Amino acid sequence: MSEFSPGLAGVVADKSTIGFIDGNAGVLRYRGIRIEELSEKSTFEETAYLLIEGTLPTRDQLAAFDAELRALRGVPDGIIALLRALPTSTHPMVALQAAVAALGGFFPHSDVSDRKKNRDAAVRLTAALPAIVAGFDRIRKGLTVLEPNRSLTHAADFLWLLNGQVPDAQETRILDMCLVMHAEHGFNASTFTGRVVGSSLANPYAVVSAAVGSLSGPLHGGANEEVLEMLREIADVANVDEFMKDRIENKKKIMGLGHRIYKVKDPRADVLQALAEKLFEEKGATPLYDIAYAIEQVAKVKLGPKGIYPNVDFYSGLVYDKLGFAMDLFTPIFAVARVAGWTAHWLEQLQDNRIYRPDALYVGPAEAAYVEIDAR
Ligand code: COA
User: Fold this and answer.
1) What is the tally of structural domains in the chain?
2) pLDDT 10s digits, 263-312
């Protein structure tokens, strides 16, 4: 058996042409293009094309892809009925996972050998997620579920579906940048989950719902909610030193810091921090940003030598909070973006598929007798 690696750290599980990360230099590229450049110049629609199709689109290709996404927005009535059947206290990630899996009943896709059909499912899934997230949010608030507004961009329509108001250009642009930045990140837990499920030739809705489940955990996508909760609990910059001392001395994790791959600051955290600063300048400051900044300064000194720096979740919660999103929508927003990466990886997995089946290091009893039940 090859070397035992808890958490598969350092294990190269497959080849990929989608996302590149240099964790020591703080570099992230999608299909070779730096995330800083994509978040500044691209849109979610263009980035989704880049991930799913493999290259940047021409103007005509982008227009056709955008039209396809717009046409595929929304979900069947049965999905809305399913969302209505859930308790209103359901976490939106639970609702999202259930609804995505159920899409497999509306769009049967048991044969994954047709590349065109697979690619179409990737686009359908990318187009559908905003309607599920927004639909459930409105249902739980007792509001009417809205129809997509096909005259709006992907990000603007998502905001429309949530709030029933056409968003302003600044709000739309910020959300669009966040979607670009969260769309892909190599073999992270949710993407790897999707690839594992895809490797059994499961249908794409099973692949993405499994990935949603993986993303929901606090060590992955759920961290941005926890960061905001943590900042609110600290409440004042004056409490930061004591909070950090307690966490570090008692070996308790500080949410939004640390990463398996990055040993320097996550490049997306830099972009999000700049976004947060700009947003607070324009819409009014919040003490939470100052607390976050103070944590980063202490962490730089105390945890920096261990390679622990802010990750993507450290500042994203602050941005989403300022944009008015409920805290439990932060991770669903992440999913609305990451679905492009998940489906790109699923398509790649199927190109040269081999089922994932690692070994375990068995540490149980070598041999044990079966004791009859009355004799135990
Ligand atoms: N705060 C304080 N210490 C941390 C830390 C954090 N956020 N993240 C890691 N560490 C420390 C661990 O305590 C451990 O220290 P030790 O070697 O002295 O025992 C060491 O760094 C390695 O941590 P480990 O959990 O084994 O790293 P990992 O690669 O398995 O985990 C994460 C990576 C992201 C899961 C981890 O850093 C974490 O839990 N971060 C907080 C959650 C988060 O923000 N997740 C979003 C990721 S994008």
Assistant:
1) 2
2) 999 999 999 999 988 888 888 888 899 999 999 999 999 999 999 999 99
Instruction: Name the residue of 228, 245, 257 whose CB sits within 8 Å of the most ligand 1 atoms, as the mutation to test its pocket.
Output: 257
71: three-class secondary structure by DSSP: helix
**Which pLDDT band holds residue 1 (cuts at 50, 70, 90)?**
low
Domain contains 265: yes
Burial grade of 33 (CB within 10 A; 0-12, 13-18, 19 or more)? middle
148 and 251 within one domain? no
Is residue 367 one of the residues assigned to a domain?
Answer: no
Q: Are 183 and 44 in contact (CB under 8 A)?
A: yes
259 catalytic? Reply is yes
Residues 202-239: pLDDT tens digits? Answer: 999 999 999 999 999 988 888 888 999 999 999 999 99
Amino acid occupying residue 114: D
Q: Alpha-carbon distance 156 to 161, whole Å?
A: 9
User: What residues does ligand 1 touch, defined as CB less than 6 Å away?
Assistant: 7, 219, 223, 251, 253-260, 303, 306, 308, 311-313
CATH number for the domain including 244? 1.10.230.10
In a domain, 4, yes or no: no
pTM: 0.94
* Cα 274 to Cα 272: distance, rounded to the nearest angstrom: 5
Question: What is the domain extent for residue 298?
Answer: 223-322
